[in-house]
Give the backbone structure.
Amino acid sequence: MTELISFGETMMVFSPESPGPLKYKQHYGCNAAGAETNTLIGVQKLGHSAGWISRLGNDAPGEFVLNRIRAEGVNTDRVEFDSCHRTGIMLKQLCSHGETSVFYYREDSAFSHVSLTEADYHFLSGAKLFHFTGITPVLRENCKRELHKLLSFCRAKKIPISFDPNIRFKLWKNKDYRDLMIHYISFSDYVMLGAKEAAIIWGEAPFDSYAEKIWSLAPSLSFLAIKNGAKGACVYDKTDMHFIKPYPCTPVDPVGAGDAFNAGFLSGILEGQDLKTCGKIAAICGALATETTGDIEGLPDRKELMHHLTSSPLSPER
C-alpha cells in the first residue's frame, strides 16, 4: 500500500550553472521538476511510501524525468508514456540577488492529454492521503476534469485530501481562478498555502482572518498551514494555533521550499504527530530545501531530519 499519492505534471528543467540573464548562458545542468513530485520525493526520503499518477511524452526528456523520480524511490507504476505529445520543459533563470524566474514550454504537453484508467483508481484506493496542487487544474480543461474524478473517488473511499494552491500567474494567464482555489480549499482535509497566495485569493489581511475564512469554508478540514517564507509559518487545527519560527539556513534558491514544507507537514500527519510537531518538521524541510539550487537536492532524509529536530532552535528543549 502506498501512503501518499499525487497527480500532476513534472517537467525536464534546465538551469544555468551561474546567475544572470539566460541570453548569455551556454552551460546548463538538467533535472526534473514538478510541485507534486517534489513533495512526493520529500515524503519518500522521510521514510514514507509515495506514488505518482501522471503522463510523460514517449521521448528522451520523458525517460529522463521518469528515471529521476523513480531513482528517489517514488512508485511510478501509474506513469504512462504518450507517443503523440512531448514532455514539458522548463528553463530557470537565476538572478544574482537570489530570485529565480522560470520559462515554461509545457503547452499541449503529454500530461495535458492525461486520461485516467481503472488501474489509476485501483492504485489510489489503498492510499492514506491524496495530495494535489492548484497547478494541475489550470493547465488544461482536461486536467481539471480528470482531477475532479480523482477527488470524487477520494471522497467516496474516505481518502483524506491535501491541497496547496501553488498559484502560478504564468499559468493563469488572463483568467481568474480564485473561485476554483476556494472550491478546492473547501473540499480538503489538509490545506497548506502561502501568505501571498492567501492575499491573492482574499486580499491583504492578518493571518488569523485567513484562517477564519478557511475554517468556515472547509467542514472536513483537520490541519491548516499558512506559510510565510523566511518569516515563519502559522499552523492551525480546530482549537489551537502555533507560530512556527523559521529554521536557520543559508538560502541559495527558494524554488521548491514550499513543496518541501508540504512534504514535512504531510509526513508528520502520516505519523500521527501533533500539530506543532508537524509544523516544526515542515519548517526544517522547507529551510533545508533552499540551500541548494535544485528543487529536491536539499530535502532531508529521516536521519538528518531527526538531527535537526532534536538539536535545532525549534526543538522544545531549547
